[in-house]
Design a protein that fits this description.
Elements lengths: L18 E4 L2 E4 L7 E6 L6 H19 L2 E7 L3 H15 L7 E3 L4 H5 L14 E6 L5 E7 L7 H17 L13 E2 L6 H6 L6 E4 L2 E4 L3
Length: about 210
């Protein structure tokens, strides 16, 4: 049982530092301080579901860059395998992969981030996504099964929502999109709760109020 134990990083703690070989050369996580990072793992190169995800990330890459966000891929394959696959995607689908892909043959990064789930596979990383902010803090992580692809639009939405919360000191409701109302943090004292209704928000109850950001 102990050998199957998975150590996971923690939300709102520093993201584990790593140095790795990639299709763009050697990188360190600390190279990206000042930028947000979307680190995502995939089970293997030259697999159909992963190919669809890579193309979707590639097509969304410029939008991530507008959010000061760097996309980084990873799998437990060699640099040569990554390079061949990236070239194949360009040849067969005419999609250029603009972001680096980590070659994690020794599973060093995968183990740091809890990407290896023995009940799913002993030798492949599951589909995991880690969103790291511009201060190097892990802000969100999502795991998916080997058989089902991710929504890249949803990953982008989470980054946008986190940045909005940080900038404005608010929360965002279910499936929030820019331009929609945000949630005002609930009051923390009886006195503040009593005043909430008269504070000019879209008021439902003392703990539930919304406002426009515009």
């Amino acid at each position: 049982m102990e050998e199957n134990k998975i150590t996971l990083p923690r939300i709102n703690a520093p993201a584990p530092e790593f140095k790795a070989k990639t299709t763009h050369g050697d990188i360190k996580l600390s190279d990206y301080k000042g930028k947000w990072v979307v680190l995502f793992s995939h089970p293997a190169d030259f697999t159909p579901v992963c190919t669809t995800e890579f193309m979707a990330f590639a097509k969304k890459n410029s939008d991530f860059e507008k959010l000061n966000t760097k996309v980084i891929g990873l799998s437990i394959d060699s640099v040569y395998s990554h390079l061949a696959w990236v070239r194949n995607i360009k040849e067969k689908f005419d999609v250029e992969i603009p972001f680096p892909v980590i070659a994690d043959l020794d599973m060093g990064v995968a183990k740091l981030y809890g990407m290896i789930h023995p009940d799913a596979s002993d030798t492949s990383a599951v589909r995991a996504v880690f969103i790291i902010d511009d201060k190097g803090i892990l802000r969100a992580m999502v795991y998916y099964p080997l058989t089902n692809g991710r929504s890249i639009d949803e990953i982008y939405r989470i980054v946008e929502a986190l940045q909005t919360s940080d900038k404005n000191g608010v929360a965002t409701p279910e499936n929030w999109r820019p331009g929609e109302k945000v949630i005002v943090p609930p009051p923390l004292t009886q006195e503040a709760a009593a005043k909430r209704e008269g504070e000019g928000y879209e008021y439902t109850d003392w703990y539930f109020s919304k406002k426009d950001l515009n």
